Amino acid sequence: MPVTGSLAAYLALLHICGPEALQHDFRPDAAPDIFTVWSSVGPDLRPVLRRDGEHIVCPELGTRYPVAA
User: Fold this and answer.
1) What are the DSSP calls for 8-50, one per residue?
2) Per-residue confidence (pLDDT) for residue 24, from 0 to 100
3) How far is CA 43 from CA 8, 14, 38, 49, 68, in A?
4) Is 53 left (phi over 0), alpha (psi -120 to 50) or beta?
5) In terms of pLDDT, which residue wins out, 18 or 25?
6) Residues 68, 45, 19, 24, Cα dihedral to 10°
7) Collapsing DSSP states into helix, strand and coil, what is residue 60?
8) Among 67, 54, 53, CA closest to 16
């Protein structure tokens, strides 16, 4: 069963700036769109993450969503 909506967005955020971020192995089959992920970024993450066009970037860790193909 595919994960969608807010849960998918939170999982994407976990892989951008959470403990798994540096593993660089997040390749979702059906990724949430950038707007769903960005709208799930709460006030604690807003200072940490940036939007860069069609990507969300964690400058400190050098991670981005969606990852480059």
Assistant:
1) HHHHHHHHHHSTTGGG-----SSPPPHHHHHHH--TTTTTT-E
2) 63
3) 19, 15, 11, 10, 26
4) left
5) 18
6) 0
7) coil
8) 67
